[in-house]
Specification:
Two copies of one chain form a homodimer. Chain A is an alpha/beta fold and about 350 residues long. Chain A is built from twelve helices and twelve strands. Chain A is about 45% helix and about 15% strand. Chains A and B meet through α4, α5, β2, α6 and α11 of A and α4, α5, β2, α6 and α11 of B. The structure holds a DNA duplex (30 and 30 nucleotides).
Chain lengths: ~350, ~350
Amino acid sequence: MASIKDVAAQAGVSVATVSRVLNSHPSVSPDARGRVLAAVEVLGYRPNAVARSLRTDQTRTLGLVISDVLNPYFTALARSVEEEARGRGYSVIIGNADERPEQQDHHVRTLLDRRIDGLLLSPADGDSPLLTDVARSGTPMVFVDRWVPGLDVPVVRADGHRAVQDLVAHLHALGHRRLAIIAGPAATTTGNERVEAFRDAMRAHGLALPDAYIGQGDFQADSGRRVTEQFLALPEPPEIVFAADNLMALGALDAVRARGLRVPEDIGIAAFDDIPWFVHTAPPITAVAQPTGDLGRAAVRALIDIVEGRAPQSVALPARLVVRSSCGEDTATPRSTA
Amino acid sequence: MASIKDVAAQAGVSVATVSRVLNSHPSVSPDARGRVLAAVEVLGYRPNAVARSLRTDQTRTLGLVISDVLNPYFTALARSVEEEARGRGYSVIIGNADERPEQQDHHVRTLLDRRIDGLLLSPADGDSPLLTDVARSGTPMVFVDRWVPGLDVPVVRADGHRAVQDLVAHLHALGHRRLAIIAGPAATTTGNERVEAFRDAMRAHGLALPDAYIGQGDFQADSGRRVTEQFLALPEPPEIVFAADNLMALGALDAVRARGLRVPEDIGIAAFDDIPWFVHTAPPITAVAQPTGDLGRAAVRALIDIVEGRAPQSVALPARLVVRSSCGEDTATPRSTA
DNA sequence: ATCAACCGTGTAATCGATTCCACGCCCCGA
DNA sequence: TCGGGGCGTGGAATCGATTACACGGTTGAT
């Protein structure tokens, strides 16, 4: 592969001049520029990003560590992150933690070894001293979706309070009173936050949320299945199961089916995270939709702000309720007042 | 961030010795080794992968360019690729082409600029002279799932012939005769191959496959919707629509629903690619399942073979039919012969 | 006419690693 | 006693870029 020296030789100039042409430095004569450009063309020269990074101490690359690639929410996030970054001249390297702290740490370390300019992270459950070190070391860093409390790192996330309140209001209006929730891992902030929002909304509607109606999940389908089975085995099972993410909702759906029960007639299901597939399940699932694309874009902007020395901003974007039929139809209560 | 010089100073040895310790070169005294290791510990030193790559001319990184991150088939593939690569000491950088040749080329170029050791690619529709150049230039490269005919590049893919034959047999047994297919883009090999397999199977069962029953899709949900609408508008619409990938099947499902028709009573749907969600759709979808994990792993092995100078092998792994209820129940024909 | 400013260019240092080569030392055999 | 052969070590070249600095040649102001 041709190097800058080959180009310089071919064009009859020094490597410095070649470099200047390539970086559109002003003081190069049109003649030299032309010869260099021609040489580049002839040789099919492409600058070696590795060498360039070593010298300039910047890679124009962002790292993104997500909790689970198989979760459509995170792939949607990854896509918008990559898009926004590309638009701003950065590349993105994605690491998949699979909800395992060791694997998360592996990726964080590898990314740091590659001297990425900044790190976008949705921390997995379980603590990671590494993360604390990295945050303190001054590496540009932004949390997306989830975060680690106590670290001075900007967070870009969805605020589900309002949407969860809308959800509970919707369920209440449909006549449901016994609502249960499948929570995320206690150590993830989103896990807690969603439970809190739900608890608040329940209280506001004068509904009780007994401990038996709070199941511990881990954001994976299996845990949704397991918790739902426990709910169904209760002397007084809930009328609605609200899963804190889309995968657990899927597990819940499975468990209900396996019992030979129907949704929503026998039991209703709702989910945090809206994904394209929820339109096609039987029945279509009522969900709290996060503005995933906006989150990804905002996160990249915040991160690049840090990288380029500007003041970053934490962002919380509102989520919104998308009503479908998995908790019962509400066509019986028309809203029009004509 | 500490460099090898800092470690050398701290340990009171030269950088050469530090390097030798780090690369477990034999001729280093236990004493020196101990001091270096201690210094590494104290400084929290991590070797700069950029510098190392520049010197050694290898990055221990593989590039993976997939056609669409939002397609669960490709995320599953990406996951297994990353896993296998990690197990062998390589990292993976993923690029998402979004089925757009220019974006694919952008990623290929960026990956090459970063001097990845090898490239795993599932080429998008449309031709790309760049790909031909890269293949000819001797860059280690392997195609997964799709490929570009005429290039001397190993291909790792699923062979769907048998499974598609099983599918047609299954449909035939259920009494269906008018079967239609939503093809992928003509220029993608998988697109053609799946149509050919289908055509062969139809012929084997003495069934006609009129042109009107072959729709042109592009592997995206929208095209599935559009083509299905055309099928439904036919004087004699098909009894079954077979989509050449999972996204188009979803679009087909949408189109059928939008018409107020039921699946499978009014029209059946089947898909190439099996994904976890197909269990949860209404109704669960009959599909041809690719051994995605095995494909990813085999692809990485083939690529690393090239990178490390061994002879690579093209691989075709058999796909298999997974019968669900989207084409009609076949519980009426028990297989047991007890 | 003189000098400063400026322009285009090249030389060389530099980034952080790896690795070839040489050097000093010790041990062993002749 | 002397020489050859490891062994452990350090010096320095090298990878491919960027960039500070120096240099020669114009140009314009005084």
